[in-house]
Specification:
This protein is of the alpha+beta class. 30% of the residues lie in helices and 28% in strands. It has a 5-stranded mixed β-sheet with strand order 1-2-7-5-6. It has a two-stranded antiparallel ribbon with strand order 3-4. α2 packs across α3. It is globular, with a radius of gyration of 15 Å. The chain starts with a helix and ends with a strand.
Amino acid sequence: MGRIDRRLTELGLTLPPPWTPQGDFLPFRRHGDVVYLAGQTCEWDGRVVCAGPVGPGGADVASAREAARVCALNLLFTLRLACDGDLDRVRTVLRLGGFVNCVAGFDRSPDVVDGATEVFVAVFGEAGRHARTAVGVAGLPGNAAVEVDAIVALETR
């Protein structure tokens, strides 16, 4: 078991069961030492854990923030595949893009996407700190409350 796998265990974090992309896209694309991870919604074991929209009359910020944590765990599952099973190869998380399915005028998208940021920083430490975008959108696949994508640099072999 590698250092990052031990860290996941220490944090009590479990990665999701295997899943199949729902659409004609790759879950990740590697280019040299950079991995581009496709957006992951807050789906766990085939079920959206928090539906949108977020805001008055819909999901609350705390629930959506937890949904962003699920997105991060889904990204880590895919990142492990991109690293040939070895998350210790992660050099740094370069960027996260967060999308929050929200009501018009909702201004707390950064608070929601913080849920994903917190997972990456907890797992990778300073290497998990990243540039980020957090935007509100009118809808997401499966009416998910949150979707997050990532760009990660790996150690070269």
